[in-house]
From TrEMBL:
Gene3D superfamilies reported in the protein's UniProt record: Glycogen Phosphorylase B
Organism lineage string: Bacteria, Candidatus Magasanikiibacteriota
Protein name per its UniProtKB record: Glycosyl transferase family 1 domain-containing protein
SUPFAM superfamilies on file: UDP-Glycosyltransferase/glycogen phosphorylase
Gene Ontology molecular-function annotations: glycosyltransferase activity
Ranges where the Glycosyl transferase family domain occurs: 174-322
Cross-referenced Pfam families: Glycos_transf_1 (PF00534)
């Protein structure tokens, strides 16, 4: 009888944030594969699967690198950001990683051009968790404890990604580029829209909204902003609430300068919510070209937003395109096939 391939999954963030969710999804897909067994043992595992590639070089996993060297274990590692930003960092992994998981075509092309073995598999978002609801804005506001009178007849623009540095919550995380979001919103008539914020570490953006009189509603515990405290443990909302938020808003904005994802591109598309994004991470792979904008053309996006909701521009075809593109990849059987291909790439027959 053929022995099962034993896989040890490594990496977590311990706060049920993005890395923990990636780990949970990977465990689920691997558990459903015949010929694969999840292992709790480092010594008896055949494959070490890092859900966060930078941990491969972590001091605490030095023994894993020794096990690979002396017992010919294989290491698979997921690229979680745009590794093109720092080629020197990726070069440190030579001789350590047998296969990289590239979340986007751009990262995969970069790795291939530099002779790194890789396979393109985007981050997973479940269509069973993010989907369109048949609820009115009033009903959604009631569930989210938002005063409906504040949002009635307004364009609701969503942003649920962190924007602040963990080390200093009043400074922006450059990759997320919150200043571009502020510039776009500053070009809109204040009476026309409200920014809907959610998620932890929004300190910088809240500060800028206050300073520039940008109308916003924060969904969560807001006391942390005045106190300057990290809210990663209190404002990490449930998937159900985030799904409500995507259904409530009219538009989601991604203004990042550099990304591995973000998953918001997948989530908003599955909820059939209009989205505009800079051409980072997953965006060019999944979004209609109309949904993409260059950071230098932010004034054009302000115009597009107003045109979309004044009835001068149809959104339906773009929403449909984004939804169908994402759903085709996130469909369970299709994504399971992507996971199976990892083993083929490692020359392992299940």
């Amino acid at each position: 009888m053929k022995k099962s391939v034993k896989v040890k999954i490594i990496g977590r963030d311990w706060v049920n944030w993005s890395i923990d969710k990636d780990r949970k999804n990977l465990c689920s897909f691997l558990s459903d594969l015949k010929g694969v067994k999840l292992s709790s043992s480092y010594i008896f595992s055949d494959i070490y699967f890092f859900v966060w590639y930078e941990q491969v070089f972590s001091l605490k996993f030095f023994f894993v690198r020794l096990l690979k060297k002396f017992f010919h274990k294989k290491i698979v590692a997921v690229i979680t950001n745009d590794c093109r930003d720092d080629i020197n960092k990726i070069n440190h992994f030579k001789g350590l990683v047998d296969l990289f998981i590239a979340p986007s075509q751009a990262v995969s092309d970069f790795l291939t051009a530099n002779n790194w073995p890789n396979i393109k598999i985007p981050f997973y978002v479940s269509p069973a968790e993010f989907y369109r609801l048949s609820l009115t804005k009033l009903a959604l506001c009631e569930r989210l404890k938002i005063d409906y009178s504040l949002v009635k007849d307004k364009i609701l623009i969503g942003s649920f990604q962190r924007d602040s540095l963990g080390k200093n919550l009043l400074l922006p995380k450059w990759q997320k580029n919150p200043d571009l979001l502020v510039k776009i919103l500053s070009g809109l008539p204040r009476e026309k829209f409200i920014l809907i914020l959610a998620g932890p570490r929004r300190h910088y953006l809240v500060k800028e909204c206050e300073r520039q009189s940008i109308p916003y509603i924060f969904v969560g515990e807001s006391q942390c902003f005045a106190a300057g405290k990290d809210d990663v443990l209190v404002n990490n909302l449930s998937i159900e609430k985030i799904n409500w938020l995507y259904n409530l808003i009219d538009l989601y904005l991604v203004t990042s300068a550099s990304e591995g994802g973000p998953k918001a591109i997948l989530e908003s598309s599955l909820c059939q919510t209009m989205i505009f994004s800079t051409p980072v991470g997953l965006a060019p792979d999944f979004l209609h070209p109309f949904s993409l904008f260059d950071s230098g053309d932010y004034s054009k996006i302000s115009e597009y937003i107003l045109n979309c909701f004044d009835g001068k521009m149809k959104q339906t075809e773009y929403i449909k395109y984004n939804f169908e593109k994402v759903l085709s990849v996130m469909e369970n059987n299709h994504y399971q096939d992507l996971i199976i291909n990892i083993f083929f790439k490692l020359n392992i027959i299940l």
